[in-house]
Amino acid sequence: MKTRTVSDSALVPDLCREGQPQFAVRRNSAETLKLVSHFDQCCRGIYRCHRARLKKSLFFTLFLVASVADAQIYVFVGGHENYVRNKVLANESPLTSWHIGGGVRFIFSESKPRTVFNAEYAFVKKGYYQTLGGTKSSFNFNYLTYQATVGQQLLPYLSVKGGFNFAILIDSNLKKWYQTYRMVDFGLVGGLDFLENKRVGFYTRVVYGLIPMLKYDNIDALGNFNGTIRDLRNTSFMVGLRVKVYEKELRLRH
Amino acid sequence: MKKSCASDINTFVVLVLLSAMSCEPLYIPDPIDPRLPKYTESGNNVAGALINDQLWKSDIEYGWFGGFYEPDVYYIVNGDSLVIDFRGGMGENDYINISFALKGARVTNLGSMLNLAGEKFQLGNGDNTVSIARDSSCNQMGTGQVYFRSVKYDSVNQIITLSGTFGFNIVDSVCGDVDVTYGRFDVRIVHISGY
């Protein structure tokens, strides 16, 4: 196994500072764990770590799903319209985009077969447009999301769901976006599922972000600094198609 | 002889490329008004403002590269006055310079520009002035302020990173009123002159 020198490891904090931890890990994945250890140390407390941590949690969830046989697994794809609730932007308009992901569905207990738990991971493109002075600018933000919801079957073809949405901002079309926008988003999610017991079904979701994604200086027209702006909260209206890839009706072990 | 000439040309090309690269602006859009550059303190080599709600910016497209006009900075009479002249434009062939003349800035060399850190100068009060020059017929002076919020000095490479904001207005019945708002700059300065 190739080992790295002290001078090489000293490069890692620079990579972290530049917001390229993935690059740092990928480039050195075949090399010693010592470097990864340096990476963890330098990233502690830095937002860049979230992507690496999310990857770990994804593997953990896959392991969990694999170890629990009583689950339904599905994939989904859909479109959504994203708004940003705010008090600072002028002439902004919603962005219509797409999302894709997969999830796992558990039934709580045999005594409550109509109550289910869903854990979903998705890649979601959010953002908005802003038109000022005749110029239309687009702000795109790519998130990896984790939704944990509890659902109740109301009718044979209709279920209602509610829970929370946790998201990590992984990319944007803006330069140095990680210096302006918060890496973590958290919100509430609710929606309806149609034909949930069929192989192919439909869903609607509303994701209501609670955490402001923007943190920026409040500068007035003359150039005075008046504190910090914490604003811009995501709201998404989503619809999509869900396909079961593991169709057997299963139960959680007790 | 031919070899020497080619070598000179190569050296010249390399210097031009290095010069273009060193002055390349990093234009990060403001999250509130994306027409403007975001306020930063990183030496991004950008300056921008709204002049009568139209964008003025210091990075100008020219040739193949585009580039940035580093502001002219010079002091007068042993630091009694300091002049900072931002060059920029509002579009193709519409060049506008914004010039600040500041009294008592105590700047006599690059390093002493640190004296500007945190200073807010009121403009149009007799001591400090601001003017914009669109062409020879209109050189207008206004009232407002310029704020040097952050000044960093790299003594090894002899570079000053100057970051701040400005805003002012001009009342002019001949050339027209001008409102300059949301001005900001984040520039690297490597040269200062004295007169």
Detailed description of the structure:
The complex is a heterodimer of chains A (254) and B (195). Chain A has five helices and ten strands. Chain A has 254 residues and is α+β, with helices and mostly antiparallel strands. The model of chain A is unreliable at 1-47 and 250-254 (pLDDT under 50). Chain B has 195 residues and is mostly beta strands. Chain B is built from one helix and 13 strands. In chain B, strands 1, 2, 5, 6, 7, 8, 9, 10, 11, 12 and 13 form an eleven-stranded mixed sheet that branches. Chain B is globular and about 45 Å long. Mean pLDDT of chain B is 82; it is low at 1-5 and 14-22. The interface between A and B is medium-sized, with 26 and 28 residues.
Write the layout of secondary structure elements.
The complex is a heterodimer of chains A (254) and B (195).
Chain A: H1 6-9, H2 11-17, H3 21-27, H4 33-43, H5 49-67, E1 72-85, E2 92-109, E3 112-132, E4 135-155, E5 158-172, E6 184-194, E7 200-209, E8 214-219, E9 225-231, E10 233-246
Antiparallel strand pairs in A: 1-2, 1-10, 2-3, 3-4, 4-5, 5-6, 6-7, 7-10, 8-9
Chain B: H1 2-22, E1 46-51, E2 54-57, E3 59-60, E4 67-68, E5 72-76, E6 81-89, E7 95-103, E8 120-123, E9 129-135, E10 138-154, E11 159-170, E12 178-189, E13 193-194
Parallel strand pairs in B: 5-13
Antiparallel strand pairs in B: 1-2, 1-12, 3-4, 5-6, 6-7, 7-9, 8-10, 9-10, 10-11, 11-12
Q: Keywords for this structure?
A:
heterodimer, A: 254 residues, alpha+beta, eight-stranded antiparallel barrel, elongated, disordered N terminus, disordered C terminus, B: 195 residues, mainly beta, eleven-stranded mixed beta sheet, two-stranded antiparallel ribbon, 1 helix, 11% helix
Could you provide a short overview of the structure?
The complex is a heterodimer of chains A (254) and B (195). Chain A is an alpha+beta fold.
Distance between the termini of chain A: 45 Å
What best-fitting shape of chain A do the alpha-carbon axes yield?
elongated
The largest contact between protein chains, plus residue counts on each side, is: A-B, 26 and 28 residues
Radius of gyration of chain B: 18 Å
SS-derived structural category of chain B: mainly beta
Order of helices and strands of chain A: HHHHHEEEEEEEEEE
Tell me the helix content of chain A. 10-25%
What is the subunit organization of this protein?
A: heterodimer
Mean pLDDT of chain A, as a whole number? 79
**Class derived from helix and strand content of chain A:** alpha+beta
Which consecutive residue ranges of chain A, at least 5 long each, have pLDDT under 50? 1-47, 250-254
Largest sheet data of chain B: 11 strands, mixed
